[in-house]
Amino acid sequence: MDRTGQAGIAAALCGLVLCLPAAGALARVARAEAQPPARGSLWIAPAALAALPTRGPAWEQLLRAAQEPTHAPNLADKEDPTNVRVLAKALVYARTGEERYRAEVVKACAAAMGTERGGSGLALGRELAAYVLAADLVGGLPAEQEAAFASWLSAVRHLELEGGSLVSIHERRPNNWGTSAGASRVAVAAYLGDRQDLERAARVFRGWLGERSAYAGFEYGDLSWQADPAAPVGINPSGATRQGHSIDGVLPDDQRRSGPFAWPPPHENYVYGALQGALVQAVILDHAGYDVWSWGDRALWRAFHWLVREAGFPAQGDDQWEPHVINFHYPSPFPAPVPARPGKIAGWADWTHGSGAPSRMLP
Question: Which of 322, 292, 300 is nearest to 27 (CA)?
Fold first, then answer.
């Protein structure tokens, strides 16, 4: 079934859109008409992209990446950089209209299908989203390839791999595995116009951000970094403390990889890995009309605030693109280098969401 058919079925099955009360005094009114984003706007609105500069260090790095080879995608390799290079090609095409970049995106998306076999749910979660975003940016694949691509996407999110499927991992694991799976799940649902699964994924994400009334079906590990071990969450609530120290904004199920609660807090990079997937979910859901930046009492901003201000641990390496997204949506900017290395799931936010982009900061 093609994407249009799936969207129609999904719309018929999903009569109501989640409209839970937003948490915290700073939350905005939720948007009731959430739906899959229009074509070409999963990652960035076309008008916003058209206004971005084609000069400067962020653009130059993007352009260099777009010229890298992408002939051998491997969704079973969680470290394969081909995915973000394909995303770079798609962004350059969308900004310049140079057809050769679109042709390379189409070829890479077609070549990626089936390469998930033998891999893990984590690898698929990390790798797939960028191909979906790239396909969206170039307006989809040619008709015959698009039908095969859409059919494969619809099925692959339910494929059982090591650790589970994208859907089951997203709904069970409240750490970097779950957020990575969620990133690709949300990207697929939005691309296919699957409103029912997009709504379900949004509920799961809202629960991970700390709103347990939306979803609380996760399976947690050691609880020593949780603000309330009896009510564990993906991001600790506003004002949370432990032994006189702030743990407001901690991602407990990834911070625990550093060991039990300790102060000064260890610099645990799994936390930034989890935030990569969380930010991809947030950007796509935002473009679908969900008020994600307010959910969990601005949970995503609080996560970065704790890492930078409390832990003294700004984003490094392939996490450097993340603060550009946060600074785009919130005041009180965090350190965000330019150019910034792309990540494992997405990247190039120093160009799409950096200082050259019109800010959408919350009031």
Answer: 292
- Does residue 195 form part of some domain? yes
CA distances from 33 to 37, 55, 115 (A): 11, 37, 36
Domain at 116, CATH number: 1.50.10.100
pLDDT more than 70, % of the chain: 89
Find where tokens 């999904």 sit.
10
Q: Which residues contact 55 (CB under 8 A, 6 or more apart)?
A: none
* Structure confidence by residue, pLDDT tens digits, 111-143: 999 999 999 999 999 999 999 999 999 999 999
Token readout for 156 is 């692959």
Vertex 269 angle, CA 267 and 274, to 5°:
130
What is the H or E stretch that residue 242 is in? strand 241-242
| Angle at alpha carbon of residue 213, lines to 300 and 173, rounded to 5° | 60
**Domain containing 281: what range?**
3-10+41-352
Over residues 80-94, the pLDDT tens digits come to: 999 999 999 999 999
pLDDT at 27 over 80: no
The model's pLDDT over 224-251, given as tens digits with 9 standing for 90+, comes to: 999 999 999 999 999 999 999 999 999 9
CB 314 within 8 A of CB 163: no
How many alpha carbons lie under 13 Å from residue 97 in its C-beta half-sphere? 1
**Distance (Å, whole) CA 13 – CA 312:** 47
- Tell me if 112 is assigned to some domain: yes
Rounded Cα–Cα distance for residues 295 and 23 (Å): 6
Type of residue numbered 105: V
The answer to whether position 22 is within a domain reads no
DSSP state of 81: T
pTM of the model: 0.90
Token duo for residue 160:
């059982």
Adjacent-strand bridge partners of 245: 242
How many domains is the chain partitioned into structurally? 1
